[in-house]
Amino acid sequence: MNAQLLHDVETLLAGWEKRWGTPDAREAAALADARAALAQEPPALLRHPWRTHVTCSAFVFSSDLRSTLLVHHVKGDFWVQPGGHPEDDDASAIGAALREAREETGASPLGTPVVVDLDHHALSGAFGHCASHLDLSVAVLADPEAALLVSAESHDLAWFPVEELPAKLPSGFAARLARVLARTAAL
Question: What homologous superfamily does CATH list for 3-185?
């Protein structure tokens, strides 16, 4: 178990309300679920034995916040922000999210990423043993003109205007994106 990553995630969760204020009901439930998942032995940063795992993702935006970079996920068959499970050598949630964004898109972040969202969402049977993700997300800016790379985990990737998202999105994604955008614009 990566003690440094575990400490980083626990610290983020402990300071969540101070950073972002009183969470709405959905985010409050995600915070409670994440704290419980990390209190298990071993903590739910590992893929097994638990059916719920902490993941890290990156909402990648153009510098004007008008476009977002999404990947068409192979297992989920939907468009979503790049992300995935932390690895043993990830020192922080931000580091894990940036690594996932680079691996899945080739995007290089501009500026300093900030953790802006926590979401607990169920997964379909296509994800195998994993039944849900407790996803910590960062907001990052990237150049929409930079070269991109489609990974084996996605069918495609593309920039979309935030007002014209594709039809195939996970449940609750549009509301989550709106929360992330509002927090990112306020930074």
Answer: Nucleoside Triphosphate Pyrophosphohydrolase (3.90.79.10)
Token pair 């169920």 in the structure block, residue: 122
**Residue showing tokens 């930074």:** 187
- Distance CA(105)–CA(108), nearest Å, equals 9
**pLDDT per residue as tens, the chain (187 positions):** 689 999 999 999 999 999 999 999 999 999 999 999 999 989 998 777 889 999 999 999 999 999 999 999 988 899 999 999 999 899 999 999 999 999 999 998 998 999 999 999 988 888 888 889 999 999 999 999 987 888 877 789 999 999 999 999 999 999 999 999 999 999 9
Going from N- to C-terminal start, the domains of the chain cover 3-185
pTM: 0.94
Closest CA to 156 of 113, 112, 93, 104: 104
The whole-angstrom distance between residue 120's C-alpha and the CA centroid of its chain comes to 10
SS3 call for 122:
strand
CA distance 178 to 147: 26
